[in-house]
Amino acid sequence: MSSNNVTRILVVGGGYVGMYTALRLQRKLKQELRQGTVEVIVVDPEPYMTYQPFLPEAAAGSISPRHVVVPLRRVLPQCQVVIGEVTAIDHTERRATITTLAAEETGNGAIEVAYDELVLAPGSVSRTLPVPGLADVGIGFKTVEEAIGLRNHVLAQLDIASSTRDPAVRDAALTFVFVGGGYAGVEALAELEDMARYAVRYYHNVQSEDMKWILVEATGRILPEVGPEMGRYAVRELRGRNIDVRLETRLESCEKRVAVLSDGSRFPTRTLVWTAGVKPHPILAATELPLNDHGHLKCTPALRVDGVEHAWSAGDAAAVPDLTAEPPAKPDEPRPLCAPNAQHALRQAKVLAENIAAVLRGDPTENYEHKYAGSVASLGLHKGVAHIYGRKLKGYPAWFMHRAYHLSRVPTFNRKARVLAEWTLAGLFKREIVSLGSLENPRAEFELAAGTGRHNEAI
């Protein structure tokens, strides 16, 4: 435990739950933080929180990448932000091992941090399957770097198709395969297809009909969160745009840049985007805290780790009972869990922070209870589906609801104003269709120049 009569709260993760919990603790424990009797330490590999619902729009160029992220140090001035990764947790001793950037540079090893209260909110990581070739050619869609990299990649494929006379290369460049029919896959495909269809008007030898966009989903429907009816509408909308939606189909292989599907189809492609689900962060398995069958932390409705003192969790990492759901028919059956989505994560973070503050002050804790309000999804510019409080929306109203909801949820007034300004400018002017793929290797030009210089000197 920490010393000198200072209560130290360690928050592992700076995503939805981590950042919002620390933000709420800043407000609830303002006096204690000012007096130095409480410390809040936030550990995350990145110095920012990514607002993931805006990744598809960032990929399409509707929002600048820097406005999709929230700098942790700016919004958490009363907390200590440590850029690093928690590699081990000994909760019996209440100590965490953290590998920082400095430790990697100096080789002095990791640092150890003692804590009194632990908040485990590392989020989730992409869940991959042992599909041959996937590790070599697959592109994820979970970080802002992946979103912008995918945008540059798609635009680069249009340049390749426009500049080659080889029909096989051209066909592969203009074939885009997305695996996974959840939010990430559907919204990323819809936004990028919208962008690419707009971009090809500036190519003299590429037409929108030349492109193939394929969505592969293993189950019988897409966007299950918006309900069956809106899911079917989304399929009709995508197919109406000549997007090939393959339900009850799996990716069998993608070796040598050929996507082979379980229905026997083969698609030579240079673009394979994998959004087929997530899994708990590996750090959870290294904590010796109680996990359920899916690897999530078992939690009580008060967001404590079940049966463990001084340990808390919420969001993707936690299995939290849903108190608003219908109780199970049999007494020995477990209660349904809260869905691992942003709607629950944001509200759970608030309750979690208030419960920690209550424990520190000797007050009773409260249970998390929230009736699921519904879901919204974008299907490209001015198109969407929504199922909110029993009301079903589609088309422009759903798209507007999608933007309004997420604008209200993105943290800080600064970010809200910047996103709104960018949407306004995007509505007044034409889309940007420039690929900045060279940003991913900024030293390439200098290395080429330096190498040429050395070569010339040798001659």
UniProtKB/TrEMBL annotation:
Stated family: Belongs to the NADH dehydrogenase family.
Gene Ontology molecular functions: NADH dehydrogenase activity
Keyword Ubl conjugation set for record: no
Name of the protein this chain belongs to: NAD(P)/FAD-dependent oxidoreductase
Domain of life: Bacteria
Gene3D superfamilies hit by this protein: 3.50.50.100
Species name: Streptomyces inhibens
Statement: the UniProt record of this protein carries the keyword Transmembrane helix: no
Listed PANTHER family: NADH DEHYDROGENASE (PTHR43706), NADH DEHYDROGENASE-LIKE PROTEIN RV1812C (PTHR43706:SF45)
Residue span, FAD/NAD(P)-binding domain: 8-325
InterPro entries according to UniProt: FAD/NAD-bd_sf, FAD/NAD-binding_dom, NDH-2
